Amino acid sequence: xxxxxxxxxxxxxxxxxxxxxxxxxxxxxxxxxxxxxxxxxxxxxxxxxxxxxxxxxxxxxxxxxxxxxxxxxxxxxxxxxxxxxxxxxxxxxxxxxxxxxxxxxxxxxxxxxxxxxxxxxxxxxxxxxxxxxxxxxxxxxxxxxxxxxxxxxxxxxxxxxxxxxxxxxxxxxxxxxxxxxxxxxxxxxxxxxxxxxxxxxxxxxxxxxxxxxxxxxxxxxxxxxxxxxxxxxxxxxxxxxxxxxxxxxxxxxxxxxxxxxxxxxxxxxxxxxxxxxxxxxxxxxxxxxxxxxxxxxxxxxxxxxxxxxxxx
Length: 312
What we know:
Layout: E1 2-3, H1 10-18, E2 27-32, H2 38-48, E3 52-57, H3 62-72, E4 77-79, E5 86-87, H4 91-102, E6 106-115, E7 131-134, H5 135-144, E8 154-156, H6 157-163, H7 176-186, E9 190-203, H8 212-226, H9 234-254, H10 258-271, H11 276-287, H12 292-308
Parallel strand pairs: 1-2, 2-3, 6-9
Antiparallel strand pairs: 4-8, 5-9, 6-8, 7-9
């Protein structure tokens, strides 16, 4: 459990581990240089439960904190939980027998998305791919869309050791988990998606992914990292990269970050080889940035769709 200034929620998250019906676990909390009472809260839990350990380190980011926790962990199975999210009590008890029965390397589940006020969002889900998938098949599926919530994962330590730890490059911050799943799949690891809802993902204003661009930028970086892989066909790569660039630029415009949007558009234009719609978007972003999202959505994308569906 990586934790940075998490005093508000971490007790509830730790309590969801302690409430597991499967009780043979250790909890390694990595305090990533918090300036609030996070460390005190964790130490109180550790004083009352020998299975809880607190490791403090200078702030280095989420991936570095996760890696510190992995180096400290002693078990043959590893699960992840952020300091503001929750497991349901039967989470581990449901996953461990399934892993033993199927022999897969990684099990992940569906779950609930809830707000700071506790409201569950029924229309949002994690798009779990039910059943078993492995290797190149799963690599292509994940490249197209990340279907795995980090807090839902139970993975064999041996599979992690085979591909290495989380990539600590800050360009991937908030999507370092996505990169790890892709590397596992490309290395031949087997995955099993459970449709049971066994975790609760908290969405709140202080979350690192509350702002869309903070999620989309590292996701794009991860996708660009893996895009040259020969297991991927060019149409899939173009569709995925183009979609992420467009979503990111649109988000930056919505956030009023026009210079950042223009910089990303330059990168996109170069990557997309000066495609006609991208060229028009580039011009539009310079001439009418506040109208960019509306015109792109209502005019340019519609025109692109019609052109791509013309039959000659």
